[in-house]
Amino acid sequence: MRIVCLIEDTEGSEGKNGCAAAHGLSFYVETGAHRFLVDLGPSGETLKNAEKTGTDLRDVDTVVLSHGHYDHSGGIMPFVRRNTKAKIYMQRTAVGDFYSDDGESAGERFRYIGIDPAIVDLPQTVAVDGDLRIDDELELFTVKHANHPIPFTNKSLLVRDGSGYARDSFDHEHYLVIHDGKRHILVSGCAHKGMPNIMEAYLDRYGAAPDIAISGFHLMKKTDYSEEEKREIGEIARQLNEYPTKYFTCHCTGMKAYEIMKSVMGDKLTYVHSGDVIPTDWI
Known about the structure:
Blueprint (H helix, E strand, L loop, with lengths): L1 E6 L18 E5 L4 E4 L6 H8 L9 E3 L5 H4 L2 H5 L6 E5 L6 E4 L8 E3 L12 E4 L3 E2 L4 E4 L15 E5 L2 E4 L7 E6 L2 E5 L7 H12 L5 E4 L11 H15 L4 E4 L5 H11 L3 E3 L5 E2 L5
Parallel strand pairs: 3-4, 4-5, 5-8, 14-15, 15-16, 16-17
Antiparallel strand pairs: 1-2, 1-18, 2-3, 6-7, 6-11, 9-10, 10-13, 11-12, 13-14
């Protein structure tokens, strides 16, 4: 198995093939049966990073769009100009009218953050309603019940409807499970539903925790954390630490939140940067 972070918010250390960093996320994964992508970052820059890591996107057979935001989908239209065979799996609701409330001081308070609607009309796009078993190796599942708080950073993320703006429920988010022999790997985009809820839903579905979980945790803030927010981040880390899972995080977790979580989780948590390859002997 080979897992490469094609793009995320931070540059890797020297020697990472000069991969660009950008606010967004994309992972490339090679397994016994598949060459696939989870998300495609914010733009065509993801494709350039793929070349720098020696990843041939023409071989990709599957794309999973984790949810309906631009920073995970912006590279899809450039990708399909290079690869017309790969099926693109997304929740049917991922085409919603999604916005970020950037505050009253912003030049444009409500900023569109949804996907390019042209993605929906692509012949290779597969609209999914809830859970889906793709094959023996790949499955998609959703979180139907949240027993733990969702990330506090979700409060600025909205969906527009006929009556105005409402808090996004993130029913357009799904999660990929890779069954690779005896190893089971969970891959999420931003974990907007809350990583403790996702892990609990996985445990309920499969009867055991995944060996590996790869995800942003959506805890990043541009301003300082309040003491209550720091306590919440620490509590998330403690809940995740109860599982025998090793976690790789990136993107919307943010380095400040990562440091808080790392102090709790130690070697069970690792940050992945643009161009990083997750060593298979860790899995």
